[in-house]
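ok trying this again, last paste got cut off
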Amino acid sequence: MCLKVITIFTILFSFVGNAQVNYRSQPSTFNPYIPQQPIDAMMQVARYQQQQYYLQQLHKKKKAFNNYWDKIEKINWRHRDSFSSPYSSFLKGGWYRYDNDGSNFLLLQMNENFYLFKNVPFRLWKGLNNATSKGKYYNYYIRGRYLIATNTLEY
Protein backbone atom coordinates (compact mmCIF):
# COMPACT_ATOMS: atom_id res chain seq x y z
CA MET A 1 0.00 0.00 0.00
CA CYS A 2 2.77 2.46 0.97
CA LEU A 3 4.72 1.52 -2.13
CA LYS A 4 1.74 2.40 -4.35
CA VAL A 5 1.32 5.80 -2.65
CA ILE A 6 5.02 6.58 -3.02
CA THR A 7 4.93 5.58 -6.67
CA ILE A 8 1.89 7.77 -7.35
CA PHE A 9 3.53 10.77 -5.65
CA THR A 10 6.76 10.18 -7.55
CA ILE A 11 4.92 10.16 -10.88
CA LEU A 12 2.88 13.20 -9.89
CA PHE A 13 5.91 15.24 -8.81
CA SER A 14 7.90 14.27 -11.88
CA PHE A 15 5.01 15.45 -14.05
CA VAL A 16 4.73 18.74 -12.16
CA GLY A 17 8.49 19.20 -12.30
CA ASN A 18 8.51 18.80 -16.08
CA ALA A 19 5.67 21.28 -16.47
CA GLN A 20 7.70 24.20 -15.11
CA VAL A 21 8.23 27.15 -17.39
CA ASN A 22 11.67 28.57 -17.94
CA TYR A 23 11.07 32.32 -17.75
CA ARG A 24 14.59 33.18 -18.82
CA SER A 25 14.08 31.62 -22.24
CA GLN A 26 11.18 33.98 -22.98
CA PRO A 27 11.91 37.47 -24.28
CA SER A 28 11.80 40.16 -21.61
CA THR A 29 8.75 42.16 -22.70
CA PHE A 30 7.37 42.63 -19.20
CA ASN A 31 6.41 46.21 -18.42
CA PRO A 32 5.08 46.88 -14.89
CA TYR A 33 3.13 49.93 -16.10
CA ILE A 34 1.03 47.94 -18.59
CA PRO A 35 -1.49 45.58 -16.99
CA GLN A 36 -0.70 42.04 -18.08
CA GLN A 37 -4.15 40.62 -17.46
CA PRO A 38 -7.54 42.29 -17.15
CA ILE A 39 -8.78 42.64 -13.58
CA ASP A 40 -11.49 40.21 -12.72
CA ALA A 41 -14.95 41.71 -12.22
CA MET A 42 -15.22 40.16 -8.76
CA MET A 43 -11.97 41.83 -7.73
CA GLN A 44 -13.33 45.17 -8.92
CA VAL A 45 -16.49 44.67 -6.87
CA ALA A 46 -14.47 43.69 -3.81
CA ARG A 47 -12.23 46.75 -4.13
CA TYR A 48 -15.23 49.01 -4.58
CA GLN A 49 -16.85 47.56 -1.46
CA GLN A 50 -13.63 48.04 0.52
CA GLN A 51 -13.40 51.64 -0.62
CA GLN A 52 -17.03 52.29 0.31
CA TYR A 53 -16.53 50.72 3.75
CA TYR A 54 -13.41 52.83 4.31
CA LEU A 55 -15.23 56.01 3.28
CA GLN A 56 -18.17 55.20 5.58
CA GLN A 57 -15.84 54.63 8.52
CA LEU A 58 -13.97 57.83 7.75
CA HIS A 59 -17.23 59.79 7.50
CA LYS A 60 -18.41 58.42 10.87
CA LYS A 61 -15.11 59.28 12.52
CA LYS A 62 -15.05 62.80 11.10
CA LYS A 63 -18.64 63.39 12.23
CA ALA A 64 -17.87 62.16 15.76
CA PHE A 65 -14.72 64.30 15.86
CA ASN A 66 -16.61 67.41 14.74
CA ASN A 67 -19.30 66.79 17.37
CA TYR A 68 -16.59 66.43 20.01
CA TRP A 69 -14.89 69.68 19.00
CA ASP A 70 -18.26 71.48 18.89
CA LYS A 71 -18.89 70.46 22.51
CA ILE A 72 -15.47 71.77 23.48
CA GLU A 73 -16.12 75.08 21.71
CA LYS A 74 -19.44 75.53 23.56
CA ILE A 75 -17.64 75.60 26.90
CA ASN A 76 -17.09 79.10 28.24
CA TRP A 77 -13.28 79.08 28.25
CA ARG A 78 -11.45 81.85 30.07
CA HIS A 79 -8.65 81.90 27.50
CA ARG A 80 -8.58 81.16 23.79
CA ASP A 81 -5.43 81.23 21.73
CA SER A 82 -4.54 80.19 18.19
CA PHE A 83 -1.89 80.41 15.51
CA SER A 84 -1.62 79.74 11.82
CA SER A 85 1.54 78.82 10.00
CA PRO A 86 0.87 78.95 6.26
CA TYR A 87 4.57 78.52 5.48
CA SER A 88 4.96 75.29 7.44
CA SER A 89 4.91 72.17 5.31
CA PHE A 90 3.61 70.09 8.23
CA LEU A 91 1.65 72.07 10.79
CA LYS A 92 -0.95 74.44 9.33
CA GLY A 93 -2.60 75.79 12.49
CA GLY A 94 -3.39 75.31 16.14
CA TRP A 95 -6.11 76.27 18.62
CA TYR A 96 -5.68 76.18 22.39
CA ARG A 97 -8.55 76.44 24.89
CA TYR A 98 -7.75 76.59 28.60
CA ASP A 99 -9.06 77.59 32.01
CA ASN A 100 -7.31 78.67 35.18
CA ASP A 101 -8.13 75.32 36.81
CA GLY A 102 -5.72 73.56 34.43
CA SER A 103 -8.16 71.98 32.00
CA ASN A 104 -7.24 72.53 28.39
CA PHE A 105 -7.56 71.24 24.84
CA LEU A 106 -5.25 71.66 21.88
CA LEU A 107 -6.41 71.21 18.30
CA LEU A 108 -3.73 70.97 15.60
CA GLN A 109 -4.22 70.94 11.86
CA MET A 110 -1.65 68.92 9.94
CA ASN A 111 -2.32 69.17 6.21
CA GLU A 112 -6.06 68.31 5.92
CA ASN A 113 -6.22 66.27 9.14
CA PHE A 114 -7.06 67.46 12.65
CA TYR A 115 -5.69 66.06 15.91
CA LEU A 116 -7.13 66.82 19.34
CA PHE A 117 -4.97 66.74 22.45
CA LYS A 118 -5.93 67.06 26.11
CA ASN A 119 -3.97 68.34 29.13
CA VAL A 120 -1.12 69.79 27.10
CA PRO A 121 0.79 72.10 29.48
CA PHE A 122 0.62 75.80 28.76
CA ARG A 123 4.42 76.02 28.51
CA LEU A 124 4.32 73.53 25.61
CA TRP A 125 1.67 75.60 23.87
CA LYS A 126 3.79 78.75 24.22
CA GLY A 127 6.85 76.83 23.03
CA LEU A 128 4.95 75.58 19.99
CA ASN A 129 3.74 79.11 19.27
CA ASN A 130 7.27 80.52 19.42
CA ALA A 131 9.11 77.65 17.72
CA THR A 132 10.88 78.35 14.45
CA SER A 133 10.10 74.81 13.29
CA LYS A 134 6.67 73.89 14.59
CA GLY A 135 6.87 70.39 13.11
CA LYS A 136 10.09 69.57 14.94
CA TYR A 137 8.74 71.00 18.19
CA TYR A 138 5.53 68.98 17.83
CA ASN A 139 7.43 65.76 17.10
CA TYR A 140 9.77 66.23 20.04
CA TYR A 141 7.40 67.44 22.79
CA ILE A 142 3.77 66.63 21.92
CA ARG A 143 3.50 63.70 19.51
CA GLY A 144 2.36 60.46 21.11
CA ARG A 145 1.76 61.95 24.55
CA TYR A 146 -1.55 63.81 24.73
CA LEU A 147 -3.64 62.65 21.75
CA ILE A 148 -7.27 61.79 22.47
CA ALA A 149 -9.01 62.05 19.08
CA THR A 150 -8.39 62.50 15.38
CA ASN A 151 -10.54 62.83 12.29
CA THR A 152 -8.55 60.19 10.37
CA LEU A 153 -8.48 56.42 10.46
CA GLU A 154 -4.69 56.35 10.95
CA TYR A 155 -4.61 56.23 14.76
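PB: full thing came through this time. Strands lie at 79-84, 91-98, 104-110, 113-118, 147-150.
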